[in-house]
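User: Last request for today: this protein with 2-deoxy-2-amino glucitol-6-phosphate, please.
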Amino acid sequence: MCGIIGYVGDKQAAPFLLAGLKRLEYRGYDSSGIGIVDARTKSFDVRKINGKIANLENLIHSQPLCESSTGISHTRWATHGAPTRINAHPHVDTRKNILVVHNGIIENYESLREKLQSRGHRFVSQTDTEVVAQLIGEYYHPSRSSAKPEDLLAAVRKAVKQLKGAFALGVIAADQPGVLVAARVGSPLIIGLGRGEQFIASDVPAIFQHTKKIIYLKDGQMALLTPQCVQVSSFDGHKVQPKVDTVNLQIDAVQKQGFAHFMLKEIHEQPQVLKQMFQSRVKHGAVVLSGIHLTDQQLKNIKRILIVACGTAYHAGMVGKYIIESLANVPVSVDVSSEFRYRNPIIHQNDLVIAISQSGETADTLAAVKEAKARGAKILAICNVVGSSLAREADAILYTHAGPEIGVASTKAYTAQLYMLYLLSLKLGMARKQLNPQLGRKLLKGLKHIPVLYAKILSEKGSIAHIARANSHFGSFLFLGRNINYPSALEGALKLKEISYIPAEGYAAGEMKHGPIALIDEYRAVVCIAPESDTYEKMISNIQEIRSRKGKVIAIATDGDTTIKRHAPHVIYIPQTEKLLTPLLVALPLQLVAYYISVKRGCDVDQPRNLAKSVTVE
Ligand code: AGP
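Assistant: Here's the final one, the structure of the complex with 2-deoxy-2-amino glucitol-6-phosphate:
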């Protein structure tokens, strides 16, 4: 959601910024822009446009930018004001001294706007961001002959102290080529350190080809960047000695590598991701979760677990409830992060809060975590992105290390979260002596074998593609599952609606007769998740109820199930595994069905409309 990239150095800024914006496309956006400083005229040269980055590229091609080695750029995901050229970033102040890009939401923008208007500032956009440019502009008025980098830093400092909400900012001044100021509260921002050049960006993929040395700016910190150095300070003006991390991202991780879409590539990466998780987390038959920072005695003392997450991560959390309760005998509640925060949650001593997030930047989950911490909870995060805000906020962290997930629809991150929850449940069950050791060994063996089963499903993806295409004309879908695969049904529906825009609902199959059955007719496709399980017979009854109302059934069943063929015209088979592990296998055909339907309908698989990869506003 909104991507920022900025540059000061000795090279041309515009090509660098454009290439960086392309690497941030996956975050989700609806317009983009680039602004650079023209050192000769001490003015800005700006290009903005709505739609894809390709539009910006074409615009710059037809109206080239001037030469400059100082610039900022942005992909905007509209919050305040439509996705138009005027509302696209960067935004400039009335006197055209200050240029700003912003990620986040300025909550007090209306009152600030009124005050600024009354003092003569003229606004041209509907955005909250424009108040930031105007506010900084108001404080920035050095005489043109003696403008110093510190003047810009001081003006930004005065302005940020008045802002409420979340923001990551990149700011340049028309009369200061070679100077860039960044600031952050709540929205992610990193600084890349180069030789004779420095960068800011929302995310590592935008700049990792230029530097591996990264500073993760913290909330309440700002930075002054010049080609030679970076100075970090707090909003109060105290100098900060920042930690410099080395990132180890390979170019392959952010390229499609011959796959038609990132989503398909990431689906195919799952066997390898899970295999690596097993190898690094299971040693001599025992689960090793070094990042957990809890002794066996502390694990024994846990009285209750509260899981908070959003979207797909929430569905992983729901599966987590079933497995933690059954293997470790600890009560688990699962909340959508945005609801948890406002429901006055009760937290006792010895409660553990588990926050699950691929990006670690989801504003709702971060807010839920802050709320839980304020109530005295210990936070364990399950997260994919190293160094993310969640990783820094949590008391303990279990990284899934699934690698960058570029497709907006979460695939490998989801199954890695599930896998981690299985490992955690086994660890908890063993430490609390609630798990029958024989069952523990069987499940570990099953988990070890999952990557091989994934490879088998993937080798048969042609038949899944065939079923998906044959049903791609349906105008609406229902996904039904029971017990541990009820969350699988929710996830299947979410995946399909995200990338194909087909209305899709997930339901606990037992709930069908309490309402959704009214929707069943020959125009409704129903995906029935019916692997071998204790509720299999009940699913067959559901399938019959759907068939007798002419609904079109696509069943997901276990290899060797010949009965189901009599009830469902389309059956997707998954290999046999432990019943408790079936959500891991069911996820794969659900992802593939959504993928092939999206492709067939000509949708933008990797960047579906209106969606953002990391949702950094509440
Ligand atoms: C998944 O396909 C979605 N795009 C979305 O629901 C996502 O899972 C959610 O926004 C949470 O993101 P996070 O895991 O980065 O916190």
